[in-house]
């Protein structure tokens, strides 16, 4: 599967799955616009990609919980391109803890602000660039925590709240943007193995029915969805956890 020459924006790309996405999509031939809260973090991932021989990668600082920062990010990307083909809403803060009282107010605000408000803001400010594309897609990494009545995670209640908000937002957006040709795709994965895409294990990781979901499979799901003909609107991927 390929996304050759598509222009892809990825948030939260300094580490973890965001970094994996940036490296994977660059390898697939995309021009990647990646962001992280710190410019140094984004540039670190950019430099890793350039070391692989992929020059069409750009790094930006963006605090997705800040409207001013999101606007500046979108404006900076607009200086490089007149359209974006794929927006991947990956950035979101994780918060651990099964006791509501275990987190302070600042952690709760950061968690809900990045996961809920951040997703809305990034989508809002990149929508004009997406509408200028002939093949616009929005992919959001939600979580199984965004599935109603799911209770199998050690995440804090605020993280559940943020993911529930993401799910509701992408659900209505999928319906409202369809008539404008924008596909909105949400992923609801359980915990998964995020193997370093630059390690030998990336190619050899076991992916049998008894194994934990891998980052490789999530990347494959995204590329599968965006490579479908434009009459194919896949709204969501839901995953069964490993037994």
Extended strand count? 7
**Helical region count?**
7
Q: What is the chain-wise order of helices and strands?
A: EHEHEHEHEHEHHE
Secondary-structure content class: alpha/beta
Q: What fraction of the residues are assigned to beta strands by DSSP?
A: 5-15%
Multimeric organization: single chain
Describe the sheet with the most strands: 7 strands, parallel
Lateral arrangement of strands in the main beta sheet:
3-2-1-4-5-6-7
Q: Give me the Rg, rounded.
A: 17 Å
Would you kindly provide a written description of the structure presented here, covering whatever features stand out?
This protein has 243 residues and is an alpha/beta fold. The protein has helices spanning 16-27, 39-51, 67-78, 105-131, 157-177, 201-204, 215-226, and strands at 7-10, 31-36, 57-61, 86-89, 137-141, 183-188, 236-238. Strands 3-2-1-4-5-6-7 form a seven-stranded parallel β-sheet, sandwiched between helices. It is globular and about 45 Å long. The model has no long low-confidence stretch (mean pLDDT 95).
């Amino acid at each position: 599967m390929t996304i050759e020459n598509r222009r892809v924006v990825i948030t939260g790309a300094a580490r973890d799955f965001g970094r994996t996405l940036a490296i994977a999509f660059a390898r697939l031939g995309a021009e990647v616009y990646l962001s992280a809260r710190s410019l140094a973090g984004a540039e670190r991932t950019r430099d890793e990609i350039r070391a692989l021989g992929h020059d069409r990668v750009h790094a930006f600082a963006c605090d997705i919980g800040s409207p001013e920062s999101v606007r500046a990010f979108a404006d900076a990307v607009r200086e490089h391109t007149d359209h974006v083909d794929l927006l991947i809403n990956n950035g979101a803060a994780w918060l651990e803890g099964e006791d509501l009282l275990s987190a302070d107010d600042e952690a709760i605000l950061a968690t809900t602000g990045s996961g809920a408000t951040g997703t809305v803001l990034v989508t809002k400010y990149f929508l004009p660039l997406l509408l200028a594309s002939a093949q616009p897609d929005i992919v959001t990494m939600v979580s199984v925590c965004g599935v109603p009545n799911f209770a199998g995670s050690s995440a804090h209640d605020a993280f559940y709240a943020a993911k529930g908000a993401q799910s509701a937002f992408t659900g209505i957006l999928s319906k409202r943007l369809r008539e404008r040709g924008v596909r909105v795709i949400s992923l609801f994965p359980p915990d998964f193995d995020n193997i370093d895409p630059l390690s030998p294990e990336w190619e050899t990781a076991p992916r049998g029915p008894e194994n934990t979901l891998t980052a490789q499979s999530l990347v494959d799901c995204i590329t599968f969805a965006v490579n479908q003909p434009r009459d194919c609107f896949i709204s969501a991927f839901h995953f069964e956890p490993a037994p």
